[in-house]
Amino acid sequence: MTSWLQQLINFLPGGGLYLGVLFFVVLFESLPVLGLLMPGSTIVVFAGFLAFHGKSSLVLLIPVSIAGALLGDAISFGLGLRYGSTLLKLRSFQRHHRLMKIRKFS
Predict the structure, then answer these.
(1) pLDDT digits (tens, 9 = 90+) for 8-45
(2) Is 73's pLDDT higher than 70?
(3) In the chain, what is the greatest distance between 2 CA atoms, to the nearest angstrom?
(4) How many domains in the chain?
(5) Are the C-beta atoms of 85 and 106 separated by less than 8 Å?
(6) Containing domain of residue 12, as a range?
(7) What would the 3-class secondary structure string for the chain be?
(8) What is the pLDDT of residues 77-102, one digit of tens each?
């Protein structure tokens, strides 16, 4: 492995902090608007690479990633359930009539 990559792996946190950061990255990727800014799937693949090189356990990495994604999706669903009809009444959504077809499912 090249020296700069080994230095990067040594620089990154390990253990619980590493898994906590991964959990929140995956959670924020599932949230509206923040998901556009957060490259969660790329970071999870990189986390798998780091787990292969001994930064963490893959057995812990997988459930932490799944839990973050499920919680983020549940929060997104709750936000849509609570504020979805209000968002559809906004002027910017009224301009695009094809988006209003979503209302048929509610």
Answers:
(1) 666 676 677 878 888 988 898 888 777 777 777 788 88
(2) yes
(3) 57
(4) 1
(5) yes
(6) 3-105
(7) CCHHHHHHHHHCCCHHHHHHHHHHHHHHHCCCCHHHHCCHHHHHHHHHHHHHCCCCCHHHHHHHHHHHHHHHHHHHHHHHHHHHHHHHCCHHHHCCHHHHHHHHHC
(8) 998 888 877 877 777 666 666 655 65
